[in-house]
């Protein structure tokens, strides 16, 4: 008996320790079993307490009265499936007549504490069927991406959502994106994850990094073109516009051929073109966009206007030509000059890391979801990398990218360097294999240039 007691104490202590230090392991060992039992045992009473039951129908009440049986109880939604996952439980429910998905959505917070879970979200899968996703612990605290990820062209797993599912950046569904956040909020780590995710795809990466190239130039071996100052950025963007026009010509030529063939598909974008002539898609990553918009002289102002015009043209017409924009900055409002609001309207994939004020949060979500604005303002300063991701449908999620170091991203880019396509229009901006400096020279010891 004593040994049995000792074993119980050891198991309970181990579970407590795991729960505190390694919640993911705790979930996989003890948590999933306890939570499944808790949900199954308490299901009826919790649903009743959360107002998610319906009265029995009139004929059942009448039948009970006639047959002198006890009055039937209120009925909760029927459980179609209860599936344990790596991070929580997924409960699929068939709603009763008179219930709708909003009833469940409104009760998620009550369900969360009644079932003793960390988080609960719900979504309607089809009419009358709702999926309730419950997480057993804070999955965003230490992000671990699942080993098995979906693979599809131009769809990159970039972060984890708070409900434990993977957040994909899907360029074909949402072509252009805007990532905002205060300094040190996690924008570069997010962008690094994007590059690392895209590296293994058949895609040309183009980078504009006016922070002297410190973020994107180390990843140069996987980039088809890079610019590290506004002058080169302008030339590069105008070259991209020319490339886009060439792709449009190709689509038109292909259309003329198909029109003459009865029943042939007519191409509307690069993805409809036969694979052998399909141009490679291009993702243009712009780090710290405000650097492109700053000007001190009339000449620089003209350059700024041309940069914004090129970006607007790429955003408006780029999708069909397979050119996707990924713009990153601390702020993105009208103070950056004319044309910015028009550009923002085209950047429908929005990601906001911690922001300093409500105005910045509004720049990300003001035009698509007021709830997301509130959620972005509430991101705590100490959880760097946590962000709100939403799109023009108004749906949004709290996400966090894995903490990929620059070294890890460089290794991934180097591994896939042979996939870097050569785009003739962008050849002048192809980064040369970086020449190693002969020695490290501290700034203070840099010799002044002699006349
Ligand atoms: N997803 C993440 N998980 C854990 N830590 C993170 C994450 N993202 C960022 N951090 C931490 O926050 C620090 C700042 O991140 P990052 O450089 O991406 O911020 P930033 O918004 O690009 O800042 P800046 O605008 O000043 O360049 C990183 O050094 C890292 O320690």
UniProtKB/TrEMBL annotation:
Keywords: ATP-binding, Membrane, Nucleotide-binding, Transmembrane, Transmembrane helix. The chain crosses the membrane at residues 24-41. It comes from the Bacteria. Residues 163-362 form the FtsK domain. ATP binds at residues 181-188. PROSITE patterns: FTSK (PS50901). This is FtsK/SpoIIIE domain-containing protein.
